[in-house]
Every structure is written in C-alpha cells, then in structure tokens.
Amino acid sequence: MPAEFGLAVENFTPADRRPSMDRILDYASAAERLGFGSLWVWDHLFLGGRRPFPFLESMSTLAALATRTTTVALGTGVLVLPLRNPVVLAKVAGTVDLISKGRLTLGVAAGWYEREFLACGVPFRERGRIFERNLEIIDRLWREPEVTGVYGELDLRRVALQPAPPSRPRPRVLIGGYVDRVLRRVATMGDGWLTYFYTAKSFRSAWGRIRDHAAEAGRDPDSLTNAAQLPICVSGSFEDADRRVRAFIAEYFDVPAWSESSPDSAIRGTPAQCAEQLAEHLDAGTRHVVLVPCDYAPDQVERIAAEVLPALRHARRLAGERA
Predict the structure, then answer these.
(1) What is the pLDDT of residues 158-202, one digit of tens each?
(2) Cα(297)–Cα(292) distance, rounded to whole angstroms?
(3) Using one digit for the tens of pLDDT, what is the confidence trace for 121-131?
(4) Which among 76, 54, 53 is positioned nearest to 65, based on CA atoms?
(5) What is the DSSP string of 229-273?
(6) Of 197, 167, 178, 45, which is closest to residue 106 (Cα–Cα)?
C-alpha cells in the first residue's frame, strides 16, 4: 500500500500572533494543487496560562476548508473528545462530512490539559471513561438508523441523526494517545492510531503493541491504519534545518515529558536527508504522514512537494527494484 502525505494547518499561533483564515485557505488550496492528500487541524479550546495561544475551533475550520478544497481528506489531530457533548459533536462532524462529500477523518483523544476540563465542567479524572462513552454514542448515531439508550445524564430516546454522514459505514475514527491503556482502545474501538512527534523507533514499538492488542481481541491487525504527525524543515544543511525546526517546535508545541513525543522526531536537512528520514518512518509501518512545515512557510510546502517527496519515491522505487 503506497504511503500518503498530508499537511498540518496553522489554526493556532503563539500568543504574539493571530491565526488568519485567509492564509489558512490559501495554504489549503496550495496543498491540494501540489498533490498533498490531506489537511489536519489542531484542537484545543484554551491553551496556555499567562500568554494563551490564539486558537480557531477545529470543526469550524474544517468546514471552511471543505468549501475551498475538493479532493484532500480533512482531519482533526486530535479533537479532545470528553469536552464535547457527543450528540452535538455527532451532528457537527456529520455535517462537516456532508459538506466535504465524505472526506472527514475524526482524530480523537482523551485530553491532558486540566484547565479546559475545569472550564467546561467535565471531570478531569474521569476523562477516559467519558471518552469511551462519547465515542460509543457517536459511533451508534452515525451507524444506526435509530438510537435508544441511557448514558448517565444523556437519555437518547429513538434518536435518528439525519441526514446521515455520507462516509459509510461512518467517518473514519483515529485515536491518539501514548499509554498502553490507550493503545488498547486504538486496537479495539477505532480505525487506527494518530501519533504526535514520534521517532521511527518509538512508532515501530508502539504500533507493534497495537497490532498485538488487536490480534488478542480477535481483530485483524491489518484492518487498522495510522497517521504520524511530524515536524519538517527543508534546508541547505542538516545543521541549519535542525536549528530552525527546534526553534519552531519550542515556539508552537508542547512535547509532554511523560510521552515518547520528541523534537528528535523532526524531519530535517537537505531534501535527500529528509527523504531518507521519512523512509525510516515508512519502514517502521507508518501509512499516512502528516507533515508540520517549519513556520508553516509556503516555501517549505513547495520544497516538500517538489524536492523531498519525489526523492523519497525515487529511493523507494530503487529499493523495490533491488529487492
């Protein structure tokens, strides 16, 4: 199965800037024109303390992207599922799938930022249970013509979600997270795994555990897919790219110390070096790579499309011929 490549979208910025929908839409159009297969938005309601990150809401942003694009898949990487009323989210996400003509992938996770849970009145320590409940409700509303069930305070009585999302049997659901309990959810509750800044070595190890959990649960491991979010900086030298991409990661992103996420996951260097590093991820089992271009710069997007991906495909083709 050939690998697919997408791009992350700058729907949040550091505190001293503001997201620009015009820039986002131009970026999306360029990504589609250049042949990228997907666009992914980030999701938080509030992020940061004294200097909060300006953040555009994820599903609204995807709806806007759906009107500007025609072929790219659209995804959340990842949406904090326990913060959403699952009935409302099923309707909103189903509408985005309808607007996009079946291009939605819903990436979801249990969340980690306690301030958001406090602000929304959602018990932080119960987020795993709420995640599983919400995912079950959304799945049923998308799949079943009529749903009846009581889930705590949510009393569904012959509820029919119409119109149904065009993706059948429902939009694809990827689950993000790190710990083994979450990897078991990936293996049993979703369509695959969505990672955040994993090295190829870390990805290979965790993906192997997911496949083992799936087999233990009686599920075909090959039925699962995955997507890996990776920063990238293309430059004239490894040293320059390494310096630039680490500064970009430090300015924009949190890399949790308790996870295997790492700035060392960044793809960086000359086009040939970037292609070589991407090949390591594909060899580790990555099926869909979501690249986060350094500074979301248009010239980075152009160089990835014109130099890095052709070099990667050429190298993979030669390797296949030698095999």
Answers:
(1) 999 999 999 999 999 999 998 999 999 999 999 999 999 999 999
(2) 10
(3) 999 999 999 99
(4) 76
(5) EEEEEE-SSHHHHHHHHHHHHHHH----TTSS--GGG-EEESHHH
(6) 167
